[in-house]
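thought: fold this chain, then report.
action: predict
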Amino acid sequence: MGALFITATGTDIGKTHLTCALIRHLLAQGRDIEALKPVATGFDPAWPERSDTGLLLAALGRPLTPGNIARVTPWHFAAPLSPERAARLEAREVDFDQLVDYSRETVRNCRGTLLIEGIGGVMVPLNPRRTVLDWMAAIGIPAVLITGSYLGSISHALTCLDVMRRRQIVIRAIVVNESEPSTVTVSDTVESIGLFAQDIPVLNLRRGELSDAQDTAARISKFIN
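observation:
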């Protein structure tokens, strides 16, 4: 049994891509696997298969039914904005205590490995008072941090690394997902982040390459308790 929180330095960095790769790898190993993305924005009910939730269910090999969508993503909103802002447009709000309770209960009840995919970056507001960082700290499971290789990603990654350490969140690995286009190479980004990562493995991921994602997933799976 084990659980892992997949977070990132920002939006569209590759959380779902890596989470799906981890799901496929663990299933191929014959392991029981569950995956959640409890909060999602930009969710179009007319095209659920295009959503992150739809991609996770496809990787799990489960049908895209209303029940499965509600189980994987209980809080979903239409606008492609932060949860705080998207919920406000619908006169709603993400109840932080309910989100934490749902996450903790799923961790407790999972018989195998549980992957929880966050939303946006580490400091994205969930509501007017709480961020993704607060969520991770509250449920207390290890995390994987994903960043890009774009110019500026090193600073973004090290900022996230610092705040996560301050909140005593265990980081199992940092993954550098190749940005396109970029003036910075993946290998240079990995090397620079590694100077400050201490004993945290820093892995690279070639953007969009399924075989490379599976290799990275195989390495990360070794860090899941």
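thought: worth noting. Residues 146 and 175 are 5 Å apart (CA to CA).
final: tokens above.
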